[in-house]
Amino acid sequence: MEEETHGSMANNPFEIAQHQIDIVAKRLKVDPGIIEIIKQPKRVLEVAVPIRMDNGQLRVFRGYRVQHNDARGPFKGGIRYGPGVNMDEVKALATWMSMKTAVMDIPYGGGKGGIICNPKEMSSAELERLTRRFTAEISSIIGPLKDIPAPDVNTNPQTMAWIMDTYSATMGIAEPAVVTGKPISLGGSLGRNEATSRGVVICAREAAKVTGAKLQGATVAVTGYGNVGYNSAWLAQELRMRVVACSDSQGAIYNPDGLDARKVGDFKARTGTVKGYPGSKEIPIDKVVELDVDFLFPCALENEITSTNVESVNAKIIIEGANGPTTPEADEVLYRNGTFLVPDILANAGGVTVSYFEWLQNLRREYWTEQEVNVKLEARMVKAFHEVYDIAKKENVHMRTAAFMLAVGRIASVMETRGLFP
Ligand code: GLU
User: If residue 71 lies in a helix (H) or strand (E), which one and from where to where?
Assistant: First the structure.
C-alpha cells in the first residue's frame, strides 16, 4: 500500500481524522489553505451543565458542541452521552459528520455534541434535566437552519423530544426541525430508527456484489448491540445471513449455528446485556473482531481495530456501523491483507440521510410513508457506495481513502466557489 502513516497517533480520534484528511490532500488539487480550514472545526463550545440529582445533590457535568464545517449547509450531527466523552472525540466525530454528509451529497455540514456522564447510573428524570439544561446552554448556536442535533450513543428519540421541547420553549415557537430522530408523534420520520442499520446492510449487500461474496448463509459478527448493532443484526438475517456472535459493554456471545438477533435484542432489553443469552457461549468481548467470519459489523465505539489486533482480524468484509472503529495503521494492514472495508462515513450514513428526510418533512409539514423513506434511502446509499467504489478502483486506493477523496473534494469545491469572507 502506498499510503504511509506517521507512526502511532496514540488512537486520538481527532488526530486520526486530521490524518485521514492529510492522506487525501496529497491526491487532490486543492489549495493547502482550504485543507487547513477543513482540518479544524469552525467553532467549539464547552459548557457546564449543572443539575439537581434525585437525591438533592447539585452536580456539574461537562458538555460540548463542536461545529466542524457548514460550507455545504447547516451543521448536522448527533449528541452522545458517556463517561468516555471528551473534546477530541467530539471534534473527530464532528469532522466525520462533515465527511459523511458530503459523501452522501446531502446539503449539510458536520457537527457533534456530547456530555461526560454515566447515563446507565442516572434516572430518567436526571437525564431529562441534563438534556434540557444542556440544550439551553447551546440553544444560541443550534437551530433548524444553523445546527441540527440527532441521537448518537446513549441518546434516543425521547432525548430528542426533550431537546425539541426545550428549544421551542426558549424560542417561543414550536420547532420540530431543530432536531432529528424525534418520536414519530412529534414529527419524527418513519424509518429513522432503523435507517443507519438499513444503510449498513445495503453496504454489505453491495460489497458482496463487487467482491463476488455470497450473502446467503454468510456468517456475521456484530460488536455493540445498541440501536445500530441490533437493527443491523436482524436486517442481516432478513437477507439470510447468519449472525454468529455479538457483544455489548458487558460481554460477548457466540453460537456457530447462528443466534436469533431479535430474541437476543429482547433478552438484552430485559436483562441489560446480551451476556447469558440461552444457548450461546460466552467469549471475551475483544475476541469478536477476531472471529473467522465472512462479515464483521463493528457497531460499538472508536478504536476497535488497531495495530495491536489487526493481524488477528479474519473477516473478509468489514462494514463500519460505528464511527471510527478502525485506526489508519489498521486500515493499511487490512488493505494489504485483501479485506474489503466499507468506511463509517459511507457505511453508517443511512442515519443522517433519513435525518435529512425527517428535516425536509418538518420544513414542508409533510409526512412520508415508511416505504417512501426506505426507497429514497436505498437509492442514495447505492449511489454513494458506487461513487466511492469507482474512485477506489480508479485511484487504486482503499474505500476509506476513496470516500475521503470524494468528501474533501466536494467540501473544498464549495469553499473555493464561495470564496473567503471578508
Ligand atoms: N449520530 C448519527 C451519526 O453518527 C446520526 C447523525 C444525524 O442523524 O444527524 O451519523
Answer: none
The string of pLDDT tens digits covering residues 406-422 is: 999 999 999 999 999 99
Kindly tell me if the per-residue pLDDT of 332 is higher than 50: yes
Tell me which amino acid residue 179 is: V
* Residue of 65, 97, 147, 193 to test ligand 1 pocket, by largest number of atoms within 8 Å of CB: 97
Whether 200 is in the pocket of ligand 1, judged by its Cβ within 6 Å, is no
Ligand 1 touching residue 188 (CB < 6 A): no
Query: Do 41-175 and 195-347 have matching folds?
Result: yes
Please tell us whether the domain made up of 41-175 is placed in CATH 3.40.50.10860: yes
Hey, where are the domains in the chain?
A: 41-175, 195-347
The string of pLDDT tens digits covering residues 345-383 is 999 999 999 999 999 999 999 999 999 999 999 999 999
> What is the pLDDT, as a whole number, of residue 136?
98
The three three-digit cell numbers of residue 175, written as one number: 420547532
Topology of domain 195-347 in CATH is: Rossmann fold (3.40.50)
**Does 167 score more than 60 pLDDT?**
yes
Whole-number Å distance, alpha carbon 2 to ligand 1 midpoint, is 32
Extract the C-alpha cell encoding 36.
487547513
Q: pLDDT band at 8, cuts 50/70/90?
A: low
- Residue 278: count other Cβ atoms within 10 Å of its Cβ: 8
Is the CB–ligand 1 distance for residue 78 below 6 Å?
A: yes
Residue 47 bridge partners (DSSP): 63
Helices (H) and strands (E) in the chain, counts: 13, 12
Has residue 168 got a pLDDT over 80? Answer: yes
Residue 7 has pLDDT above 90, yes or no: no
Please state, in angstroms and rounded to a whole number, the distance separating the CA atoms of residues 403 and 390. 10
Over range 21-41, report the average pLDDT.
Answer: 97
Which residue, judged by its Cα, is nearest atom 9 of ligand 1? Answer: 77
Q: Using a 6 Å cutoff on CB, does residue 351 contact ligand 1? A: yes
**226 backbone dihedrals φ, ψ, rounded to 5°:** -85, -155
Ligand 1 pocket test target in 355, 360, 380 with most atoms within 8 Å of CB = 355
Kindly list the catalytic residues.
Answer: 112
Ligand 1 center–CA 83 separation, angstroms: 19
